[in-house]
Each structure stands twice: as structure tokens, then as C-alpha cells.
């Protein structure tokens, strides 16, 4: 009989440093983590199947912590998720700045224009810079973008670039500064959500990130095996960077994820809000030794 994992209660749990590996599946993490980290691993049930949902349902009150974010959805700008111009196909009236004491926008400060992402080494370097200035009582979340696409050795983050652009230019104003007509944003989000949930669109969403050299792998391995291989490469990069950072951290350190990633299970690819299948909501909870 399948047992439902306990809930991931980020705010209520005891930790000094929480490392979030974006879009990290439990099964892949379980297979690889002990090559990089020592600790006690449990499976937890995330509150969301994509970052906007996870954030809005996790940080419901105000929390006194520092959040280093490589993900544009969690930012210091105070723009509600449902007002973002691109990539926020949800209706969550939530902004990180209203709920988290300090958000450091690594998605802005450490962005790699060539890759369309924030690389793990940049997140580790930024976290180290913060350690000397942090008060002893502060809790800190370090949010790595990987293993989330783009697959750093296989392409670039075209979709993430659009999400980042939508955060920097919220819903409405075009070249002349005019805002959308009332209701246009909501209609667009509903259209994006319906289109994005089709199997074809989800599969194409995986392919758009890849470089032309991936055609050979796709032809010999097929889509699922190719994406799984690239995903594992990204996860190893994130785990190596996490291990490097953990050596400098004192106190209770936990490694977890905001949500997982689907590779065709139950006809789902990637990750989408309010799609609560195990591959998207079962996440690791590793307490480091």
C-alpha cells in the first residue's frame, strides 16, 4: 500500500539554512545525493506543483528570514504573481516582498545572459558573501535554479528569459506605457494554461530549450530518456554546488525542493500549477549530518 508522505512544512520546521533545488524529483535525488552529501533523507509532500503555487501556499504569513532567490517568481519587487506579464499562469495574489523579510534577487544580480539562467556556482558564491554579514539568529534560504531547465550543457533558457522579462515588465504597459484593457490579462493566462496543459505543447516546451546538437540524442534515445539524462546532469551540478556551500554552513542544514518534474508520467511533462501528481509534489527532505 502506498503511504502519503508527510507535508513539507518549510516555515515550521527546524533549520538554520534551507537549500532549495528547483524542480528536484525525489527519486532522482534519492539515487544521487549520497555521492555528494551525507544526511538523513525523507520524502515530503510539497504544497505546490510549481514555484508560484509552492511559494504562495508555503509563505502565507510574514517570516523573518533571508531568501536568496535564483527563481524570478520569488523576488523583492512586490509584484503579485497574477500581475506578471509572462509565465504566471495562475491567479495567486501573492508577492514575496509581502511575506519574506529580505529577498535577494540573484535572478537579477547573477543572471548569465549567454545561458538564460543563474548557474549553481553563482548561487554558492552569493550565499558565501552573505554569511559574514548575517546575524547568528537569522535563517537563510538558498534557492538554486537547477535541476530546473535549461540544461546547462545542452541549451539555453529561452522560457526563463521570458519569465524574467515578465517580472521586470509586469502586466500591462507596452511601448507607450498603456496598460492592457481590463480582463485581458486573465484571459491570456487562461489561454496559456489550457495550451500549456496539452501533451504536444508540454513536450515542445521541453524541446525549445535544447541546442541543435541534441537532435542526435533525441534520435537515438527518444525524448524521455534524453531529457532524463540532461536533467540528471543538471542535478549533479546543483548537488556539487550544494556540497561546496554546505562545507561553510554551521547549524542545521536541510536540502529540499519546491516541486518535482514530470517526464511523461500521467501524460504530464515539465511542471504546472495545481497538477498534484507524485512526480511533481513528492520532494526530498535531507537533513545534513
TrEMBL record:
InterPro entries in alphabetical order: Alkaline_phosphatase_core_sf
Organism: Halorarum halophilum
Descriptive protein name: PglZ domain-containing protein
Amino acid at each position: 500500500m502506498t503511504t502519503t508522505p508527510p507535508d513539507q512544512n518549510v516555515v515550521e520546521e527546524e533549520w538554520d539554512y534551507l537549500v532549495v533545488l528547483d524542480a528536484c524529483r525525489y527519486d532522482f535525488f534519492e539515487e544521487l545525493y549520497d555521492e555528494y552529501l551525507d544526511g538523513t533523507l525523507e520524502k515530503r509532500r510539497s504544497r505546490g506543483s510549481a514555484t508560484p503555487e509552492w511559494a504562495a501556499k508555503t509563505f502565507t504569513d510574514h517570516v523573518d528570514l533571508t531568501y536568496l532567490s535564483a527563481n524570478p517568481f520569488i523576488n523583492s519587487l512586490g509584484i503579485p504573481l497574477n500581475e506578471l506579464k509572462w509565465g504566471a499562469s495562475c491567479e495567486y495574489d501573492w508577492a514575496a516582498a509581502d511575506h519574506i523579510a529580505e529577498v535577494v534577487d540573484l535572478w537579477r544580480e547573477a543572471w548569465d545572459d549567454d545561458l538564460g539562467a543563474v548557474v549553481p556556482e553563482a548561487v554558492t558564491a552569493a550565499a558565501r558573501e552573505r554569511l559574514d554579514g548575517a546575524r547568528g539568529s537569522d535563517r537563510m534560504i538558498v534557492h538554486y535554479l537547477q535541476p530546473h531547465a535549461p540544461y546547462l550543457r545542452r541549451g539555453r533558457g529561452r522560457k526563463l528569459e521570458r519569465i524574467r522579462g515578465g517580472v521586470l515588465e509586469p502586466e500591462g504597459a507596452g511601448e507607450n506605457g498603456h496598460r492592457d484593457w481590463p480582463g485581458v490579462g486573465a484571459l491570456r493566462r487562461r489561454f496559456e494554461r489550457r495550451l500549456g496543459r496539452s501533451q504536444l505543447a508540454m513536450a515542445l516546451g521541453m524541446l525549445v530549450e535544447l541546442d541543435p546538437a541534441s537532435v542526435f540524442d533525441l534520435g537515438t534515445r527518444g525524448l524521455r530518456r534524453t531529457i532524463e539524462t540532461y536533467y540528471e546532469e543538471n542535478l549533479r551540478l546543483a548537488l556539487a554546488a550544494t556540497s561546496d556551500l554546505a562545507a561553510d554552513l554551521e547549524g542545521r542544514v536541510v536540502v529540499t525542493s519546491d516541486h518535482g518534474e514530470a517526464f511523461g508520467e500521467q501524460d504530464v511533462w515539465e511542471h504546472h500549477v495545481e497538477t498534484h501528481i507524485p512526480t511533481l509534489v513528492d520532494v526530498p527532505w535531507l537533513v545534513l549530518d
